Amino acid sequence: MNPSTLALLLIVVPVGSAALTACILRKYHALATLLSVLVATFYLGGALDLALSGARFEHSFEWLKLANLTINLGFKFDDLAALMLSIVGIVGFCVHIFSLGYMKDDPAKARYFAGLSIFMASMTGIVFADNLFMMFIFWELVGFSSYVLINHWHEKDGPMNASKKAFITNRVGDFGFLIGILMCYWLRGTVNLSELTAQASAGTAVISTAIPLLLFCGAVGKSAQLPLQVWLPDAMEGPTPVSALIHAATMVAAGIYMLCRIEVLMVPDALTVISWVGALTAVYAALCAIIQRDIKKVLAYSTLSQLGYMVTAFGLGSLTIHSETGAEILVKAGVGAAMFHLTTHAFFKALLFLGSGSVIHGCHHEQDIFKMGGLRGHMKVTFITFTLGVAAISGFPLLAGFFSKDAILYLAYENNKAIFALLAVTAALTAFYMIRMWIIVFFGKARSDHAAHAHEGGFVLQAPLALLAVLAVFGGYRSFYPHGFEGIFNLVAEAEGPAKLGMLVVSLIVLSLGAGLAFAVYRSVATLTQHDPLEAKFPKLFIFIISLKESFDSVYTYYIDKVQQRFAMLLNFFDLLGLGGFIRLGAGAVSILGFGVRALHVGKLNVYLYWFFFGVVLLWLYVAGIF
Amino acid sequence: MFLSLDPFLPALGVPLFIALLIGLGLPKRWSVRLSYIGFLAPLLSALHVWWYFASSNKVSGFAFYNAYSTGIDRLGIGLKFGVNGLSMPLYVLAGIVGFAAGLYAIRSGADRLKLYLMLLLVMQAGLMGIFASVDIFYIYFFHELALIPTFIMVGLWGGRDRNYAAMKMTIYLTVGAMLSLFGLIAIYVKSGVNSFDLITLKQALADHPLELIKQQHFLGILLLGLGILVSLWPFHTWAPLGYGAAPSSASMLHAGVLKKFGLYMLIQVVIPLLPEGLSHWSHLLALLALFGNVIVIGLVTIAQRDLKQMIGFSSVMHMGYAFLGIAAGSALGTGGVVMLMVAHGLSVALLFLLTASIHQRTETYSFNDMGGLARKAPVLAALFTAATFASIGLPGFANFWGELSIFIALWHCSAWMTCVAILGVIISAIYGLRSAAYVFFGEPTNSFKLVDSHRPASDITCSEKIPALILLIALLFVGFYPASLTNAINSSLPASEVHSSTQANVAASH
Fold first, then answer.
1. Is the Cβ pair A171, B303 closer than 8 Å?
2. Which of A173, B147, B193, B239 is most exposed, with minimal Cβ within 10 Å?
3. Do B425 and A171 touch (CB under 8 A)?
């Protein structure tokens, strides 16, 4: 098949499957499920075929043509897109299979699988997009599918609020993203990625710091970076396989993918901002993760933190390396390291999320880790694969996370020592909270009935775990990847000589520090109650982290309830009063006036003034949200 | 044979004839049956016009051109039919929304159904006439023909505050229409060609343009009059009130189609005839639309606690985008306005339709008393969510193309205004998703439980689903395949600005 036709099919087929489900198969759950899984299988085959066949192409169809504006449905398929497409295909397939078991008894299974199909199609659009308008279109559509899937259990208030929050927060980021795209369109004259690259290499580009920073706003929303990170932990209200696919492996990583796509627009100032935003997110989220009790929340904050890692890696920019011939070459090491970590993270984080799904399923939808315990004996496959995932993310030597994290640390060490320090602290915290969760969930004795009767969920739940575990173990070796992704992996800078040894030592110290501390705090796991010993040992630290975690949400809640809503109500009042209701209020006003004049008729001018200022102050207080 | 000669006559004639029959005392059973035909004829005509538009012969850009004498040719008034690229999409819109609203009304079982259907049929004929006419007098005439039934319907079948709403709507809209008429007559007199024919006027004013000062004054008057009709801030207050009170089919037709008359007049008649006048007013227009309609009314929409009022306000807000597209003063802006008018017409009609269905199940429009309807009516919830996402400009629905092209066009005039306008995208997401959540998701409220216990809510019925699906499919069709309309629109945009290249005009931005 013609590669560009196949690429188009990868978008059209999932959309068709979702449409068919919505129109006809709504009540035929088994058929809808089968259709969606078949589509995922087709997708995996098509994605791997495109990626590994070496087909690299650009092709576009005209989509909108209005006056002098043309927007294309374009496909730009290079090594970067091939890598991302393969990740989406593999993780998507695993999640579909896992969902067969996890969502088996769900009454709205058809809607769930249709939502997954819409997501696959929209994500594919982002991967292929050859211009920023098209990327924005599919960017919004993944947001929509995320909304639908988070809100899957819409009967409860939690998912309802979380889905709303996710979409609106993303829109805040997209506000900047869209402005950035328009600015790029008017200043640079094009939003086509290849044309932008051509302009840059021809030296005719208009240099702007605003464009990359505005486009970065989109990534801040989608990849949940500070200060828009608040939606991701709440998004855990959605079904766990959705969290694995959308809120861990692929959609939230789209922000980093987009940054790599527009690398050519970057300028040093913008990169500095990006790397600091990422580093702060990484350390902030890692801190929040160490006090979580909900197994999915630990993983959600961990995802935030790892996304921060990738964003930092991208922001660290290029690296000059010396080739064998002694020449100096500038390598886009930031892109390489970010995409490398994105890849390994997709594997091990999807593994961990699906593993947590297996645990939750086994414990009858108990998510509090302090009500689990001793699951090692009941759920052997989950335990082994989850352990591999924990080891991979903590940076255990020779597993996937070890290599990709080292690539980022090395780059940070070369380019920015302060960020290097932050990232090293984050790495230690990561090892701490992952080992903490691992001990509490799998060791000791069962701390609830559900945990005591935990059970494995059968083949469809275990097979995806096994597949992802293999990838999490071997994903760090370049030789593991088939021919076709060199364009990315050649950009990964590796430490050499003494620096290599130094990096190894740093990694091991960081790992043993975090892991050792976790083992020390939770060594008495056999006698663990439902209280966190960390809280007993470091109460001040615990309180500090709680307030840190809640600070953003409380500021936003304050703004929404006390400022925005009040302001809106005030405007509404004026709209009714000043512009609308004067005919109707005419009669009322006369009587109020009469009453007011009688009450105020005390004959002194200063009293009127007091009343006037009293009114002004009240109004001001109301608008400022004081009461 | 008749249809192939002139598709417009049946679109106007059939509904009017059936309305006449009903008025003459047709039995109820036959009134209902014939009403189906009355609403179907315009739809078929619209689809015919849409399908054959590209291949038909055009007279000065107008396809299916036909002229009929009505005996007042001495005044330069003649019944001339034809559609160009700007009116064809709206003609199709009127056909589709009219059919959906008609179907819904027929099955709604309203009191005095015969009178209700008769008025709707007259309104439908008027709507088709607005966009099919080439003679300005008749554009205006058909607008009045459609407007008068609206007042009556609000007054007779309206909900809360119906008398006040009907009075207020009548006052505002009559003033707006009078001002517009005054402006049109001024152009007619000053052009000196003694004709209301758009083609003749365009030619005459292109050869001998009016003096600049006259263009500015006439355009100002028309902008004010038409602005009132399209709820330009601060002349918008009739709109949420009127829509809140109007029966659902009347809201669908008025908010969806009739309100577009003002915008349509601006882009089809006023600005082409007075091309120099716009720049004098465009800054003021943009400021009013931006801060008034988009930001202030956007925030006011957030504050609403009544579903129907909220949709009414959101419609006012979206008109702000349309005015911004006009103020941009470029071919792209105009094209974006046409796209947005079609998209908004479909989506707001869908929202009003579904709102009526929600009301049947919850017996209230108040958000405080709703919640959790999705567990009882999942399909209704899905349709409403889809309509909400369409109206907040999700790609895949027609609205996105309209908003995006207006933003791009507006940047050309003012970058900071574009940034403020894009804020509206966040605002609309807030109220849109909130309303869906209040009505459908989460735990049910006690008052809804009470209503549900003595009259259990059912899912959407076929008679509600079919009109809703017609509107939704149209929205998705244009969203996925915008060329279905843009090819025609491009053919009527000023040719000098149409480039074939993908590149924006870089020089123009400086």
1. no
2. B193
3. yes
